Amino acid sequence: MSEENPDPQTQEVHDVNVHTEQESAAPQKEEAEETVPLKVLMEQKRKYKELKQELEFYRTQQQQKPPEEDYSRYESVTREELGKTQFETIRQVREMDWAERNPEKMRIVEQELEDFLKTRPNLAHAIQSSTNRYQEAWDLLSALSPKQREREKAKALATPKKEAPLSPGTIPKAAAMNEAVDLMNMSDDDFVKWRRSVAKRR
């Protein structure tokens, strides 16, 4: 009889024991699954530290990256460019030297050269192509007598006369306009007719 109808209290205790045994068995299983050897954890931690240090190193390198080097100074130069550079260097040295030795002449050149070139623009190229522009300008200015210099200044200051609009000088002559014929666009027949008309006029 006791086997068929067990005591409810003992049944309860038995159920609790079975239940606690199952609970205690389950965590052991989980613990067994999560257990990793200490050696592996230490190795992973070491790798993580190395990667972190490497990342920091690259970040600092990126921030401290020096400006890119200018390689244009290593580019080859053509003979023409080299010649121009040498010419400019020689010109600068000669002009500075001449200006230091002749301050009074330099002052006159600076004052009078612009007006002089207005009256004689053909000499501008000679001055520009010289190795010492100041000396060349002085030589050209000093070739003029003082009276000629005054006349040149007066010419430069005088305003040129402007032709009035519709004056005879600005309008092309009517006869010249009549003679203008577009020969390129004429057909052969038109050209023959035109030649005959010109021949008859003569």
Structural overview:
The chain has a domain at 103-158. With 202 residues, it is an all-alpha fold. The chain has helices spanning 8-34, 38-63, 79-101, 103-119, 124-128, 133-142, 146-157, 174-179, 188-201. The mean pLDDT is 76.
Please describe the structure with a list of short key phrases separated by commas or semicolons.
9 helices; single chain; mainly alpha; 202 residues
Strands, total number: 0
Report the total helices. Answer: 9
Mean pLDDT reading: 76
Oligomer: single chain
Q: Specify the overall morphology.
A: flat
Radius of gyration: 52 Å
Largest β-sheet summary: none
Strand fraction equals: under 5%
Q: Give the termini distance in whole angstroms.
A: 161 Å
SSE pattern, N- to C-terminal: HHHHHHHHH
In summary, what is this structure?
With 202 residues, the protein is mainly alpha-helical.
List the helices and strands and how they pair.
Elements: H1 8-34, H2 38-63, H3 79-101, H4 103-119, H5 124-128, H6 133-142, H7 146-157, H8 174-179, H9 188-201
Helix pairs in contact: 4-6, 4-7
